[in-house]
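Holo prediction — 2-acetamido-2-deoxy-beta-D-glucopyranose.
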Amino acid sequence: MRALPGLRGPRGPTPGLLPFLCLLAAARPSLADGSDPDSPFTSLPVREEMMAKYSNLSLESHNISLTEHASMPIEKNITLDRPANIQLTCQLTTSRDLNSVNVTWKKGDELLENNYLINETGNILYTQYMFTIINSKQMGSYSCFFQEEKELRGTFHFKVPKLHGRNKPLISYVGDSTVLTCKCEGCFPLNWTWYSSNGSVQVPVGVQKNKCVMNGTYANETSLKITWLLEEDGGSYWCRALFQLGESEEHIELVVLSYLVPLKPFLAIVAEVVLLVTVILLCEKYTQKKQQHSDNEKEFEQIEQLKSDDSNGIENNAPRLRKTESAAQ
Ligand SMILES: *[C@@H]1O[C@H](CO)[C@@H](O)[C@H](O)[C@H]1NC(C)=O
Ligand SMILES: *[C@@H]1O[C@H](CO)[C@@H](O)[C@H](O)[C@H]1NC(C)=O
Ligand SMILES: *[C@@H]1O[C@H](CO)[C@@H](O)[C@H](O)[C@H]1NC(C)=O
Ligand SMILES: *[C@@H]1O[C@H](CO)[C@@H](O)[C@H](O)[C@H]1NC(C)=O
Ligand SMILES: *[C@@H]1O[C@H](CO)[C@@H](O)[C@H](O)[C@H]1NC(C)=O
Ligand SMILES: *[C@@H]1O[C@H](CO)[C@@H](O)[C@H](O)[C@H]1NC(C)=O
Ligand SMILES: *[C@@H]1O[C@H](CO)[C@@H](O)[C@H](O)[C@H]1NC(C)=O
Ligand SMILES: *[C@@H]1O[C@H](CO)[C@@H](O)[C@H](O)[C@H]1NC(C)=O
Ligand SMILES: *[C@@H]1O[C@H](CO)[C@@H](O)[C@H](O)[C@H]1NC(C)=O
């Protein structure tokens, strides 16, 4: 780590290279035009060369703003599914002498020596790191560190898109057909693959007769159609999307019920009704008997009270009984 030099600029290139690079920059003004006019940074020729090489890639620009009083690091998730030019900017607003602030960049725990810029305007210190992500190894976390009396950190997490399946199990019946779907927002996977479980191993879907992978309407979705469901078709399924910069997976649970199972709640309801009717009849009988023995109004009210308490108790218990029964399936 070095203190800020008088001349704000790149940390990477050797001092001898700098005038040469400046010459290059002067000789190639057309390339420098591509940079953001609002940026406080002057372009760096090396980066312009890099950008020219990958100029057909899109530019992803992200920033994090830190203040000296920030107690927590600031983190940002960035979703990326294809190669891109990346421009990361961290800015620190501080009342301190900016020259006493050390700036570093890291990918994970690894120090990034080259290619970042530092600039200051007023009491704001900017640092910018520019690079190109072309493969999955370059995904991960990039952090800027400002070291004054305590260390301040901003982190950019690069991830491939997340898939959306369903978080609840999909429930179907034997003999029916069902469709499992997976999608991701604004993504374009190279391809999709479906897996089912055989014990604890993932087996690619495709060999089984009753399963058919269907192309979605758009590249951002896929479906797996399963016809003539058997009980053994139940279990775990996964869809996996392959992106240029990695892959992403989602789990879907399929529950296949036999037709007896849906009848069970119905039978439970019938049993409840029978029970309820029996209890009411018994109560009625009991009340009539009591009434014959005594005409006391108070007593009658108490029994009336007792009766409604009883039936309430049953109504509260009954649905619970049903639930646990179906959960046990
Ligand atoms: C910044 O780095 C220099 C050199 O490594 C060191 O002497 C200085 O104490 C550091 N400053 C702070 C505030 O950490
Ligand atoms: C720093 O930013 C100012 C304006 O924001 C700009 O004029 C200056 O050229 C920049 N310096 C460097 C070294 O990028
Ligand atoms: C960008 O250009 C490079 C080489 O010029 C080429 O290999 C790559 O396929 C291009 N990418 C796109 C997305 O056009
Ligand atoms: C930082 O990014 C946000 C949007 O992500 C944008 O509105 C803002 O202008 C950016 N700030 C700077 C200093 O680039
Ligand atoms: C970033 O992603 C992680 C894990 O996916 C999540 O826990 C975190 O809340 C996300 N952060 C933001 C700022 O969205
Ligand atoms: C998938 O892509 C289509 C067309 O590009 C779009 O209309 C649709 O909203 C996308 N779906 C998701 C979940 O992003
Ligand atoms: C998906 O694409 C990768 C690379 O192009 C290939 O290795 C893999 O076999 C493909 N998978 C399917 C199911 O087509
Ligand atoms: C599941 O595994 C068993 C033994 O490991 C094997 O005999 C069977 O063919 C497999 N089933 C499928 C559908 O791959
Ligand atoms: C799905 O799409 C791929 C390529 O996009 C194509 O090769 C395949 O024939 C399609 N399958 C179906 C069932 O349409």
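READOUT: Residues 1-35, 317-329 have pLDDT under 50 and may be disordered.
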